[in-house]
Design a protein that fits this description.
By secondary structure, the protein is of the alpha+beta class. About 60% of the residues lie in helices and about 15% in strands.
Length: about 170
């Protein structure tokens, strides 16, 4: 890799770090190509990206970004997962690491908050953005149906009372 290719790679990585909310750093030593492809597809499914990069170039790309404190994690064969969804990349990485002990999560960062391995695992346990949106819509629509039911109940009661009075009048 010549100097201009390295500069282009650093600039591209820097742009990735500037436009993302979550970064997960892991070591991947011993994973097969098929396993790496599986990890990439899992990341893609949740809207996250995955890059295997040179540590020195990644540390240079981290300069001037909110993820600069992660530079110390880049030793050995590392892979970077990133996403704009605050939990997407963490969920996919933790799920993959559960099935493949060769992927070792080192840590990461959520915006300016630096996380260790346990922090990433805790983040992965949270519901995703889509799940939260679904719950919110459910919570909003449930009271509306209850209000409609409450508003309809008095009218129904009134109709039953009038019907009972009418039946009493006919019986007399």
């Amino acid at each position: 890799m010549n100097r201009t290719e390295k500069q282009d790679m650093v600039a591209a990585l820097n742009k990735v770090f500037e436009g993302t909310n979550l970064v997960v750093v892991a070591q991947y030593s011993g994973l097969t190509v098929a396993q790496m492809n599986d990890l990439r597809s899992r990341m893609k499914d949740v809207g996250a990206g995955l890059k295997v990069t040179k540590n020195r170039l990644t540390r240079l790309a981290l300069e001037g970004t909110k993820f600069k404190p992660l530079a110390e994690l880049f030793t050995g064969p590392t892979v970077v997962a990133y996403s704009t969804d605050p939990v997407g990349a963490a969920k996919a990485a933790v799920a993959f690491a559960k099935d493949n002990e060769k992927l070792i999560i080192l840590g990461g960062a959520l915006d300016k908050l630096t996380l260790d391995e346990n922090g990433i695992r805790s983040l992965a346990a949270l519901p995703s953005l889509d799940e939260l949106r679904g719950k919110l819509v459910g919570m909003i629509s449930t009271p509306a149906t209850r209000i409609a039911g409450v508003l309809q109940a008095p009218a129904g009661k009134l109709a039953r009372v009038l019907s009972a009075q009418a039946q009493k009048g006919e019986a007399a």
